[in-house]
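Sample entry follows:

:::
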Amino acid sequence: MRILVLVGVVTVLTGAGLHVWWNTDAFGRDDFCDGALSSAEVGAVLDGTGRLTQASDGLTPDATAPSCEVRRTSRLLGAEQPRLTVGLSNERADFAFQTVVWKNPSGMSYLVGGATGAVSDTRGWVMLPAACRSKLGVDFGKTGTVPVIEVNVTDGDSTRQAVARVAVDAARHVTEKAGCPDKALRSPVRLRGPVDSGHVRRSDTNKVCGIKGFRLPERAFIRGKAAPGTELYTGSGTRTWACDVYLQGRSTPQLTFSFSQDPVLAEAARFNGSKGTLGTHTMVKCGPEEAYVGVEHNSAYQDLWLDNSPADDDLDRVLRSFATAVAKDRGCTTAP
C-alpha cells in the first residue's frame, strides 16, 4: 500500500511538473532575440497560457536577413499558439503610408517624443537613424530604401504599448550592435492614436481631415463611383500624422494623407526622393526643419482614376491642395 501511495504521489508531481513546464514560463529563458527582448516584454505581447520558445534567433546586424521569432506553445487543448516576429527590413521612407502595405495608417498610434515609428494592436515599425545606413551592409542609396525594424504579432492578445516597447527595444539593440546608437531609442515609450478612439467620422468637404481650409479638388471625385464619405485621422500632439479618407463607392476607394515633422522620417524621405510607390510626396519648410507631406491611394481608387480619363496633373492638384492647407495649419512658412 505504501508503495502504491508513493507511486501515486510521484505520478501527480510528475504531471504537475510537466504542466508547469509545458504551459507556463517557470524556469524559462530570461531573454530572447539575441538579448534584445526580456521574457517579460515578450510575454506581455504573447499573453496567455503556454511556454515561450524561440523558433529563430538572428536579430543581429551582420545576419543576412536579421529576424527573430518567438512562439507561445501549449499542450492544453484548444489553446492559442501566438507568434511574435521581429525583423530588420529595407523600406522606402513612406512605406507606412502606402495603403497596399499598412492599409489604414490613420488607425495606427504614433510614437511621441523619442523613436520614429507607429504601432497597431498586432503590428509596428521603428525607423533607424541615418547613421546606421553605412553600418548594415546594404547600399541604401542604390536600393532607394532605409532600415526599419518591423514587428508582427499573430494570434496574440496584446496592447499597443507592449508592441511599441518590443519594437523600440529591438531597434535599440540593433543600432547599438551595429555601432550607431541613438539616444531617442532610450526615451520613454509614449503613443498618440487616432481621434475619437478610432471611430470614423463623416467628412466635412470644407475641412477634410479636420484641417481648416482643406478641400479636395473636384477632379478628385468620380461621379457615382468615388463621392465624399468618411475619414479617420491621428490626434494632435504627434510629429507624424495620417488621415484616411474613405470615399463612397462600390469598390471602396481610399485616399491617405500624411504629414511628418519627425526629423528621422523627413530626412529619410529626402534621401529617397520625391516619388512614392502609389502616390507622391513633397517637402515643406517648417522653421529651420523640413517636413514630409504625402498623398497615397489604394488600388480601387487608382483603377477608377485611370478608367475615367484623368488629366496628368490631377493627383498633383490633390497633393498641392493638401500641402498648402497642412502647411498653413502647422505654421510652416512655405508650401509648393
